[in-house]
Amino acid sequence: MKLYACDRKITGWQWCDQPNLPGCWFGVLRDSDEFECFLASRPYLRGLIHAPGDWRTHLLVVAALGEAPTGGYAVKIHEIVRRSGALQVIVYLRSPAPGDFVFQTINYPVDSVHVRRDRVPEGLPWLFIDQNGRLLGSDEL
Q1: Percentage of residues in the chain with pLDDT exceeding 70?
Q2: Taking 90 as the threshold, does the pLDDT of residue 19 lie above it?
Q3: Distance (Å, whole) CA 121 – CA 85
Q4: Closest Cα partner for 120 from 28, 35, 10?
Q5: Which domain covers residue 63, as residue numbers?
């Protein structure tokens, strides 16, 4: 069962950097308190992700790459599917390859998706997996 699918094709993305950047976080926010706590611990993301209009009907799935030391980094939630007794969030990551021209600026790549609560099966773990099958993180509702 597919809960979400990205509306654009993602091609050529590769991850050439360390496994996790400082401050990376992959998880699900359930209410406004969790949302505000998340933003309080990562104020640089304020304005980059937006709360659902109604927390009673929606969850917020977040893929925050952390502090990227240069340009050329990106993160995109590709799909959310129920598979193998879990909700798998497939996340595409991109980092610059050695020798790529990049801007020398710190940035904080992030992506988020609103998911209807009535589409989310109870009691299943959330597994965040990159495009190469590497487990990035997990969460429980």
Answers
A1: 99
A2: no
A3: 10
A4: 28
A5: 2-139
Q: How many domains does the chain have?
A: 1
CA 92, CA 134: separation in Å to the nearest integer? 11
Quick check: helix, strand or coil at residue 32? helix
Collapsing DSSP to helix, strand or coil, 25 comes out as strand
Q: Strand 86-94 and strand 126-130: pairing?
A: parallel
Give the DSSP letter of residue 36.
H
What is the full DSSP assignment across 87-133? EEEEEEEE-PPTT-------B--EEEEEEEGGGSPTTPPEEEEETTS
Q: Is the pTM of this model over 0.90?
A: yes
The Cα 109–Cα 74 span in angstroms is 5
3-state secondary structure of 135: strand
Q: Are strands 2-5 and 74-83 parallel, antiparallel or unpaired?
A: antiparallel
Cα–Cα distance measured from residue 50 to residue 70, given in angstroms and rounded to the nearest whole number: 24
Q: How is residue 138 written in tokens?
A: 């997990």
Q: For 139, how many CA atoms within 13 A lie in the half-sphere containing its CB?
A: 19
Q: Which of 15, 12, 33 is nearest to 24 (CA)?
A: 15
